[in-house]
Amino acid sequence: MHSQTCQVFCIIPSSHKRRSSPPALLARARSRSLGPQLCEAQALGCRGRTLGKQTTHRDVTCEAAENAAGPSDSDRPSSRALDQEIASLALPTLATLASDPLASLVDTAFLGHYGSIQLAASGVALSVHGVFTKLLNMPLLSVTTSTVATAMGEKGGVDGEAASVAASASLLLGLTAGIIQAAVLMVAGGSCLGFWGAPAGSSIHGDALAFLRIRAIGCPTTLLLLVSQGVFRGLGDTRTPLYATLACNLLNIILNPLLIFGCKMGVVGSALGTLIAQTIGAAVLVVALQRKVRLKLAGDAALDSLKKFVAPTGWLTLRTMSISGAFAFATSVAARTDSIHTATHQVCLQIWLAASLLADALAVAAQSLIARYLSSNNQQAAQDVTKRVLVLGFGLGFIMMTILGIGSGRIPKLFSSDPAVLGLIAAIWPWVALSQPVNALAFVWDGILYGANGFRYAAKAAVICAVPAVACMFFGLQFPSSGTAQLAWVWCGLIVLMAMRIATLWIPYRRRLPPFDKLFIKQASA
């Protein structure tokens, strides 16, 4: 490290004589490292040590030295403490991420027993609902987590004004976006159902439209629930949203059979049960936030802070469109074959995505910790987190690869009993299993990128990643007579997509280029 010069002023009045102008001692010191000793003046007692027997009072100004040197080694968490901090964020996040899909599966099972038409109607409606909500919901969640974590590190932690303003602004934006989503779905929902194969007059249109409109009413509360989770993640508290999400999903599971079967409301009861549960869950989280950070939803500061969310959310929306477009094209290519190959692709894709929940939870922990450390100018700790989560991510991917490899004969049978589908899954399964380390690292790198506030770069990198992936899948269309070959090229494209996500982030990190340059302590001339 380069050497730095710092000045420390130690004012040392005598205890025996009262003086209007006490004598001052100017100590000029040179620091050769950015370690725990900021400068040699500390050895003179400017940190609270006794300078002499006659000394009873000191007024020490060493802020310049601290600012020049940055965080000391004592500010770096130990390896064990770092692992504990990562686990304290990742494990509750994993449970939160897993609870929603499980609740959806239970809801699907209820409707499946009620009737095939109702099940099909809810499936089409959920697909339309997802297109209009996921493009914005997940980016807003990620931006909220980083912005609140940054505010935590900048000023005052949980009790600071910055954390309160960031939390308030995120909730305002979430509520506004939810109202817009609701209005769009209410107006255009019926027309969109036609594009999804449920036009007016079809057997499922009526149920699908009723389901969609009730879910549209719940868009503001859904976004409030999601954004509140992001705020708590940024605050470093993943347990509160875990408890709220589990309670919300449990209430949903209890209400849905009562409304679907007991009140004989069918798909309307399913949508209404979800609306009630999410509204209660959102209210609980907002009240908990109010107690924790003193929300100021009507203040000018929160309104002025909205611009911190708009641009990053827009960039991540573009990124989501690129990545989601690649996945949609993969499904489209698979659907051009036949029902057996399409079913095979869906089973493999769902297992592939389910395995990524572990890595996604690790990415959330990385994002929150890195954003917090960088905002407090503790680059060394941010580097420690980065290196550690990459090691954990690769290890996690290797474990998942091993589990899928060992369970190759049993896991697919949980999702299908069709011999033809199971035979094709066996052919695609090596792609699913062997790609797990790549898959895990891609998600972890996303968390590192978001923690470094690299949302704009994320949008650009996503386009670069999607192009070769889609090209691989498009090449598979050149084999119309072989559905298996087309499916193989689809999975080749998906793995290329994940590998490119790693490459486009590892290269600038390795070369210390933006947005990763802030992870490294800049060396200035002496």
Plain-language structure description:
With 526 residues, this protein is mostly helical. The protein folds into 3 domains: 4-70, no CATH class; 101-305, no CATH class; 317-526, no CATH class. It is built from 16 helices and 3 strands. Strands 2-1-3 form a 3-stranded antiparallel β-sheet. Helix 5 runs parallel beside helix 8 and helix 14 runs parallel beside helix 16 (483-510). The radius of gyration is 27 Å and the shape is globular. The protein starts with a strand and ends in a 16-residue tail after the last helix. Belongs to the multi antimicrobial extrusion (MATE) (TC 2.A.66.1) family. This is Protein DETOXIFICATION. InterPro entries: DinF-like, MATE_fam, MdtK-like. Keywords: Cell membrane, Membrane, Transmembrane, Transmembrane helix, Transport. GO terms for molecular function: antiporter activity; xenobiotic transmembrane transporter activity.
